[in-house]
Write a structure and sequence with these properties.
This protein is α/β, with parallel strands linked by helices. It has eight helices and ten strands. InterPro entries: AAA+_ATPase, ABC_transporter-like_ATP-bd, P-loop_NTPase.
Amino acid sequence: MPEVAIQTRDLTKKFGDFTAVNQISFDVRRGEIFGFLGANGAGKTTAIKMLTGLLSPTSGEGSVAGHDIHSESEAIKKKIGYMSQRFSLYDDLTVKENIRFYGGVYGLSRHILRSKYDEILEKVDLKDEIDSRVGSLPLGWKQKLAFSIALLHEPKIVFLDEPTGGVDPITRRQFWEMIYKASEDGVTVFVTTHYMDEAEYCDRVSIMVDGKIEALDSPVELKRSFSAKSIEEVFIELARGAENSDG
């Protein structure tokens, strides 16, 4: 059996009387591209914040890279990369300064960091923009740079929260090529998205509706199970089912 990189059992988060994440359970295998799908407000970001140590669960269990999310959040942070849905780099710093800053945050030596500059700039085609302020770059370049910096310290797992929101289709495709490359290198990729077509790029997909995981399988098996032509059709059926049960 493949090594389990992420595991949850009945993971729950409540804010007062509101349950944002409701008893979700799943495993993510090492090197897998795991899609966490759902409409805006479905609970995806809350779940990812619990797994990355940014938010304490109300109840349930979970582990990331072999560390307990309740008691070992600092150890988890050292082994993961994280890219938030709101662009996470500093607009008023240059490309080079952002790389240097995050290299320091991740504890990389100057020698290692120097070797990383060319690697990152080549990957995102920004050699001519190394001294440009990040705020002046197109959104797609910013997002690709942010992903590369999230991998700067060679983490075992990277969490991407709505990474392609607002970017054009060509850049989205380029971004997913970067995700494929990371997976081939053994990195586990946990990606949240509300773009249903992006589910087709994942090894397995979890679909959240109103804080619950309503389906989890490979894209092929999900479409087969629901007699659907696309993941979007699967999602619509699940969402309608949830509305009917609430009614």
